[in-house]
Design brief:
Elements lengths: L4 E3 L3 E11 L2 H15 L2 E6 L6 E11 H15 L5 E13 L2 E8 L3 H17 L12 E10 L15 E4 L1 E10 L2 E11 L5
Antiparallel strand pairs: 1-2, 2-4, 2-9, 3-7, 5-6, 5-8, 6-7, 9-10
Helix pairs in contact: 2-3
Keywords: Hydrolase, Ligase
Family: Belongs to the 2H phosphoesterase superfamily. ThpR family.
Enzyme class: hydrolase
């Protein structure tokens, strides 16, 4: 069962973000890297294989009307850029109160930052929603609340991956719960195809 939220007088809202959906072979590779991480971890919450994705921009809670507008924004962006190559890079982390968010970074790719900028500009132009344009660090989250084993604190966590793949889509995801489990469900997915 999919969880929904009611805002105000029975208006349904969705928690959404814009990202790039990954193919199964990329998810399987990330799952392998995640298993390496698990072997060096005391505890943590690990990303479900089906939830692996590359975030472009978090949006937050939106109404059905805003979802309609975001779909138009994403369609416009998809027509302004062609598919491009990406490559997994080193592991990175964000520290939160002694616990870590562990992720796989991506090699510098100008087209990815161009796509990110297009998303920001299109949403800002077409909606009244203020999008915070923080410094973009492209990454794919492997786990949250990670506590590493003592012997892993000062060693290389993962073997470096040179895995290449192609970014072919832009996707509006809903962040929700299905049968009590976190799930990122595609609301709209558009292939990248420059028509300018």
């Amino acid at each position: 069962m999919v969880a929904t939220k009611e805002a105000g007088q029975g208006v349904r809202t969705m928690r959404v973000f814009v990202g790039i959906a990954l193919k199964e072979k990329e998810k399987e590779k990330l799952f392998q890297l995640q298993n390496q991480l698990k072997q060096k971890t005391e505890k943590g919450r690990f990303t479900d294989l089906n939830n692996f994705h590359l975030t472009l921009q978090f949006i937050g809670e939106v109404s059905s009307e805003e979802v309609r507008q975001l779909k138009e924004n994403i369609t416009m962006v998809s027509k302004k850029i062609d598919p491009f190559d990406l490559q997994f890079d080193q592991m990175g982390q964000f520290d939160k109160k002694g616990k870590k968010v562990m992720w796989i970074g991506l090699k510098m790719q100008p087209a990815l930052f161009q796509l990110h900028d297009l998303v920001i500009k299109e949403i800002a132009k077409q909606t009244n929603r203020l999008i915070e344009n923080k410094s973009y660090i492209p990454h794919i989250t492997l786990g949250r609340g990670i506590v590493l084993k003592e012997e892993a604190q000062h060693t290389k966590i993962l073997e470096q991956s040179a895995h290449h793949f192609t970014a072919e889509n832009i996707t509006l995801f809903e962040s929700t719960r299905v049968n009590g489990r976190l799930a990122y469900l595609p609301v709209l997915q558009k292939d990248l195809q420059n028509q300018l």
